[in-house]
Amino acid sequence: MSAGRDGPILSVRGLRTEFPTTRGRVVAVDGIDLDVMPAECLGVVGESGSGKSVTFLSMLGMVRLPGRVSGEVRFDGRDLLGMGARELRELRGRELAITFQDAQMALNPSLSIGSQILETLAAHGPAGSRRLFGRDPGQVGRAIEMLTRVGIPAAAERLRDYPHQFSGGMRQRAMIAIALVCNPRLLIADEPTSALDVTVQAQVLDLIAKMRRELGMSVVLIAHDLGVVAEHCDRIAVMYAGQIVELGPAEAVIEAPRHPYTQGLIASAPWLSDLTRELRPMPGSVPNLIDMPEGCHFAPRCPFRSDACLRPVAMRTAADGRQVRCIRPEAVA
Amino acid sequence: MTGAPLLQVRGVSRHFDLRNGLERLYKPAARSLVRAVDNVSFDVWRAETFGIIGESGCGKSTLGRTVLRLQDPDAGSIVFDGTDITRLGRRALLPFRRRMQIVFQDPYASLNPRRTVEDIVGQPLRVHGVGRAAGRQAAVTAMLERVGLPAESLQRYPHQFSGGQRQRIAIARALVLQPELVVCDEAISALDVSVQAQVLQLLRQLQRDLGLTYLFISHNLAVVGHFCDRVAVMYLGQTVEVGATRLLLAEPRHPYTRALLSAVPQMRRADRRPRTLLTGDLPSATRPPAGCKFHTRCPAAMDVCRTTPPALATLGDGRQIACHLHPG
Asked: N or C end of chain A: which has fewer CB within 10 A?
């Protein structure tokens, strides 16, 4: 049943998500393979439209028709894609949690913060807790404890506040409190800080790191900022146009990128630590998902492209375990 | 730096009254007044890039708009190339408007979706009555080429372009009148990382070719660090530290500048330093703290900070700083 102690908590093979549109079929997620290990933090970076959010929404059964998801997703050995709606709902929120970029949109504006935490406890807590909603001092205490842990001052009083009475950073913290109230084993944090100012971003990322240590959970951190994932993740997956193009230890991917896209992304990003470094912009822009290049999706912008790149490129694993989707021999040397 | 600065901003304030018409009759003004920009002074020299950095709500956009007289200041003066434009009327201001332009953050919202690129970029020429139709078209075509857009873009509409290309259209519109000062208000913040560098490179190229002066407003410290000669750090409507970018980012002195810098995630492990985390959120702009506005979050706050606002002092290395720890 359950995967071994050392096995991955989340294992994804050949995940593919398509949306039919009036202008043709959009392949938003195009063959994702990845594993998330227990207590690991995996970073997923990519530009807008690279498919990083859809990938994880697809795994959690949150892509609606006419979207089609295929492939294999195993959470702790259980097949998520084959699971019924009720079974999946039991799992989500209890063992698998997700937070979104825009906390203002994700929180219900007409329910107090406290009842939104209690709601999660009632839905996933022990039997009978649904009946006791909001009246069980144990649950209310748990809600206060959770708000305190995510750094909301005077949590007992703020329980009655509505989302509009919280600042942006506090709303993000409240959403994290809701996600973590059932002690999940995996948290998917989708751009948790992209809408926040840099000083508040640092607070929220430190909070996620602290909660990961305390709860021993795994975290998938989705972001478009390379610095954010470099600082907080053990491994990094770089996504481009629906595919992972490079996957490896965070430090290795940042300091010695092997895929031309990762290299270009790092060369074009300004570094605060080296202001004299010349920025080298990448030519072109992200391809339209409707007419995706036949072979390597990055080929039209790649400085190393050759005729061989016009055929589909498979992910290759280097001797040191780094995975790179590129045909150049030096990419996996 | 010789001669007079192109732009002199002296003690400029811009306040917003949050009360509606009825509320003005019975509510006191004091608690409903947002001091978005509060007594700000700086100079911008010709052909320089002056950065304004700060978090959301610090007043950096309001400052940029006030400098261009898109909003009128409540106090202070704005001197452009030797002329005080603070009180100029609409007609008298018009020749100055030609010389200062703005590029906005959102290239989706700032371009009229029902106009062709030729219309959009040619509009400033028509408004200011520059040249005849044929001459205007030639100017628009030349400007599009300069910003790296193909000539066949003329008859297209904004939705047919990517975000980066749209921002090029907005830049072409700002530059078609051959202005001297361009305010870039978060001009690359809405773009993807790989496209940001393209637009930055274009802005720098244009500055070199046309001798432009930029007022570059951004929340991104790394971008400002790369792009600006000098920078002003703003907090709750005031500048807390002003100086050469390299100096300020390498040796920040104001506790807020330090905290801001230390919050930026670093890509390389070797560059990471222990963080000075700020606690709490930005105080409400309608009720800013007494004394130094930063004292509620400042790790080095002293008694004097709670009562007396610090004055902007000039240090030996030329930087200006408003902090009781650095009285100058």
From this structure: N
